[in-house]
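Backbone shape codes:
===
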Amino acid sequence: MQYVPWDDQYADALCELWNQELGDRFPMRPALMRQNSFEDQNVVKAGSWIALDAVTQRPVGFVVAKCWQEGLDIQLGIGIGWIQVLLVATAHRGQGVGRELLARAEKALREQGVEKILLGRDPYHYFPGVPDESADVKTWFERQGYHSEDRLENDLLGQYHEPAELELPEVPDGRFRLLTRADENAFLAFLHRCFPGRWEYEAIHYFQRGGTGREFVVVELHGEIVGFCRINDADSPFISQNVYWAPLFADELGGIGPLGVDAEYRGRGLGLAIVEAGIVALRNRGISNIVIDWTTLVDFYARLGYRSWKQYAKYGKAFS
């Protein structure tokens, strides 16, 4: 086996390997792989490797390691590193390839000062954990010293069989509306105050990539933003997490989330209403399949007809 450093010249071949192993559940697109695994500034090159078959020189495995490296006034996960993905072709398992790739990733993350590694949950992640049905993968990581955390994360799916033209919900002393580009500074200030961290980070990237505001429904009271809901579709400025697996659907897939309401205004039903507003916006775009990703709030969203579609087990490993 030959191990070579992370290099985007292999991107298409790695995409083929992914789809060979996972494509029936998590179909990969070259644009998504490049976005999440090559263009993300947080990829640790020294910890990201490709295993090549010595005869064919084709990739048979790879690992992507990350830790926070961006020069923004935000930091995701102080002391945290991530294994974004570790994949080995079925025909080459049991030969120590996965252990070698993981050892290289862990060594590089240690050298970056990482104190704990999480599986998934990285910036531009694919998964919020290990797909729960992959029992062999969970067992393998447990043997490598990774420990399961408490509850499962869920991707939820809602499907609508009749087209509809719907009105946004009404709210006393306020309104729901889509953002515009002119709202960028006010919206980022709202997120920085109420939801600093990942949601703020993702919104900064959204505007940096040319977002116009059409991916955010907000609720305003007395002219001030007090809540938001992110909505995604095929026209969004980058491939967002709740539409990653759109190739599984014959019709266009839309996504809901993240979403949140200023703590000062909670308890008024605005959380459910902002989700309803996001659903209305997507359905009015002709979208009939909608995913809400990375949540434990299964019962909350069941009130709107959403059911668990995919589940993920959270794993981590602390360095002593």
